[in-house]
Design goal:
The chain has 244 residues and is an alpha+beta fold. Helix content is 39%, strand content 24%. It has three helices and ten strands; from the N terminus they run H-H-E-E-E-E-E-E-E-E-E-E-H. It starts with 9 loop residues before the first helix and ends with a helix.
């Protein structure tokens, strides 16, 4: 059965409710129009004297206008909720490249990494082909988070359906969107903007964990980054000394 993926954010829940609300109205309109068409095509009665009908004209003008208002009010509500961003506790930046993503946690020092799709021979059991990456985005759940999306080359689109997030990344421009994940888990997404020949090979993975584990991950990542930077600096010193 075709349906949306399970919602993981309040915004996605609102989008699913709005979709169901709109589909009910569209179904009523479709059934009503089909019924009238069938009646008109099968009924041989005609009324040659009827020249005007102000009442029926008033009815078929007011009813569509009322239906549009019923659809527009929740739609505008969701649009405002999408743009609302009040004091996020965590901010990270997603930068699109051909063809991988790089991430920066702006609130912490030296927490930057690149995320490439796993090759087929590196995929483990119970992992998904074309969706697994070597580095995941780690975020705590029930925490207001802001994602900044941009691009270094062409237009990309950072999209995760279960979060109700689709943000275009354009070169020279930064777009933002809020995320509030309501439960732990691993969630998948992909670039949804055609960005070149390997467009289908830049997946996105978010892992939602408890805030305590997130703090430990930040500490471990920072110490590992310092260690890698120190090793790189030592290698550079060794290379320079050999050439000198």
């Amino acid at each position: 059965m075709l349906r949306f993926q399970d919602a993981l954010t309040p915004i996605m829940e609102q989008l699913i409710i709005f979709h169901d609300h709109t589909m009910i109205i569209l179904t009523m309109i479709t059934v009503s129009v089909l019924f009238k068409l069938i009646i008109l095509t099968t009924n041989k009665l005609t009324n040659r004297i009827l020249l005007e009908g102000q009442m029926i004209e008033l009815i078929w003008t007011i009813i569509p206008a009322a239906l549009l208002i019923i659809i527009a009010i929740p739609s505008l509500k969701i649009l405002y909720l999408l743009e609302e961003l009040n004091k996020p506790l965590i901010t990270f930046k997603a930068i699109g490249h051909q063809w991988y993503w790089s991430y920066e946690y702006s609130d912490f020092k030296k927490i930057e990494f690149e995320s490439y799709m796993k090759q087929r021979n590196n995929i483990e059991d119970r992992e998904y082909r074309l969706l697994e990456t070597d580095n995941k985005i780690i975020l705590p759940y029930n925490i207001k988070t802001r994602v900044l999306v941009t691009s270094s080359d062409v237009i990309h689109s950072w999209t995760i359906p279960t979060l109700g997030v689709k943000v275009d990344g354009s070169p020279g421009r930064i777009n933002q969107r809020k995320i509030i994940i309501i439960r732990p888990g691993i969630f998948y997404g992909q670039c949804s903007e055609i960005c070149g020949t390997n467009h289908r090979f830049i997946p996105i993975i978010i892992e939602s964990i408890n805030i305590k584990y997130f703090i430990n991950w930040i500490k471990n990542f920072s110490s590992l980054s310092f260690l890698n930077a120190s090793i790189g600096l030592l290698n550079q010193i060794i290379v320079n000394s050999e050439y000198s």
